[in-house]
Design brief:
It holds the Pfam family Glutaredoxin. With 280 residues, this protein is an alpha+beta fold. The protein is built from 12 helices and 4 strands; from the N terminus they run αααβαβββαααααααα. The chain has 2 domains: 1-114, Glutaredoxin, CATH 3.40.30; 122-273, Up-down Bundle (Glutathione S-transferase Yfyf (Class Pi), Chain A, domain 2), CATH 1.20.1050.10. 53% of the residues lie in helices and 6% in strands. The N and C termini lie far apart (42 Å).
């Protein structure tokens, strides 16, 4: 049922049906201190694609509120024709404002209004963004859900979300965890094997850490560059950071920090996006 719902309306169709006049006004007033729309980011905390949208919003200092969507029943977005997250709503008149959906479209749309449009066509930026949104997401997903127990632990984040009823939390853990485990094993793993980002019998954690090391070595020139973008983060930095934030606070994240030289970059990114906290 959920798959059918997700396919019922494409992101492009949904976005095209929005009030373009209101959306245009909202986008031109993103950071206007006196007059700007109320912006709501509908997301799952553990969704890497939601993380990419959140990272850009934070970095660009665009005021917004996050709305945690309950993953199984999605009542927070049940009135919308599009059923995936992230979704960014611009409430120009205080409510029921136009939305932009799909993380790639959200980031591209925002980038054009915060002075980062040229990066969307920069081959180096595009290459690392595709890496972050492709193999990195899949390796993280596979390692995060490497066993049924670990998949179950992955849902622990919902314990702290007051808007999700207890019964739903229980249902999510009992039903959601096995689903995520099966998806990771029978959809994510084959995709990684097919793309060559994982080999049969290869240790997933080792490959994940290896990919992080490659990012540091090639995108950051072995740490000589503070960011891929140089002195300031670019969209490649922000996508990579956003993807990693989806597992922050979990075993997978801590192991990455401890086993790779990513910490200085993460600390620098934290400062740029205004994240309060530290690593290790």
């Amino acid at each position: 049922r959920r798959l059918k719902e997700n396919r019922s309306c494409t992101a492009e169709e949904f976005n095209a049906a929005q009030n373009q006049e209101e959306l245009s006004w909202a986008l031109s007033h993103l950071r206007n201190p006196k007059e700007h729309p109320q912006i709501l980011l509908y997301r799952y905390s553990t969704c890497p694609f939601c993380g990419t949208a959140k990272a850009l919003l934070d970095y660009a200092k665009i005021p917004h509120e996050c709305v945690e969507v309950e993953p199984m029943f999605k009542k927070e977005i049940s009135s919308f024709a599009y059923k995936k997250v992230p979704q960014l709503q611009f409430n120009v008149h205080g409510y029921n404002g136009p939305l932009v959906v799909d993380s790639e479209i959200i980031v591209s749309t925002l980038a054009k209004h915060v002075g980062m449009e040229k990066q969307l066509k920069d081959p180096e930026v595009v290459k690392w963004r595709e890496w972050a949104r492709g193999p990195m997401v899949r390796l993280l997903t596979l390692e995060f859900n490497s066993s049924l127990y670990r998949a179950w632990c992955g849902y622990s984040y919902i314990n702290n979300i007051d808007t999700i009823p207890y019964a739903n939390k229980l249902f999510l853990k009992i039903v959601g965890a096995p689903v995520m485990y099966l998806v990771s094993q029978y959809i994510t793993r084959p995709r990684l094997l097919k793309s060559g980002h994982l080999h049969e019998g290869e240790d997933v954690k080792g490959r994940l850490h290896g990919e992080i090391n490659t990012f540091i070595e090639k995108a950051l020139l072995g740490g000589k560059k503070k960011f891929h973008g140089g002195s300031k983060p670019d969209l490649a930095d922000l996508d990579t950071y956003g993807v990693l934030q989806s597992v922050r606070g979990h075993r997978v994240y801590e192991e990455i920090v401890q086993s790779t030289p990513i910490k200085p970059w993460l600390d620098s990114m934290d400062k740029e996006v205004g994240h309060v906290g530290h690593h290790g």
